[in-house]
Fold this protein.
Amino acid sequence: MKRIPVALALALVSLASAASAASAAPLTFDIDKVHSQVGFSIRHFFSKVPGQFKDFSGTIVMDPDAPAASSVDVTIQTASISTDNDGRDKHLRSPDFFAADSFPALTFKSTKVTPTGKDRVQVTGDLTMHGVTKSVVLDVEFLGMGEVGVGGQSWGTKAGFDATATLNRKDFGINWNKTLDKGGLMIGEDVAISLHIEATLKPPTQK
């Protein structure tokens, strides 16, 4: 599998890209939802409860000659939140948390890409959630890129990325909580984001 310099990789919890140094034209990748995960976890009492969003899409445009001009654009459907508990998921969709009826989508649009080491970059972008937009930084690891296939059948060119970030939900106006009888709060403020992304290179547009 071909690997490329991290300086040419634009990466993204959830969104990133990679390209061959020899290519002169911008390359566009689509996030493969079936083989990707947009996950999170948050403290509940003394442990952490995980969850994920199951419906999302995204496009990554990579310019090998000008990595800073590359871009990531991701949309996540708020109502697709899942923690494997129907009652809790219903509460998370309610006005106490994501208010999915009023704010049906979360969006992430990159604003800057900064190489931080071998196969690693930071992707800064505007995250809009619950009607509030804040700058968020994703720490991203580029896992590799190459054309893949099985049994003579090509599945196209794939790229893989892992990304993490931590954000404070109160920065986005999601403030609901309960005070415990002996002190402390039911749930934490910091949310750990974990993205596992597989993306597929789109073929050049035929003229």
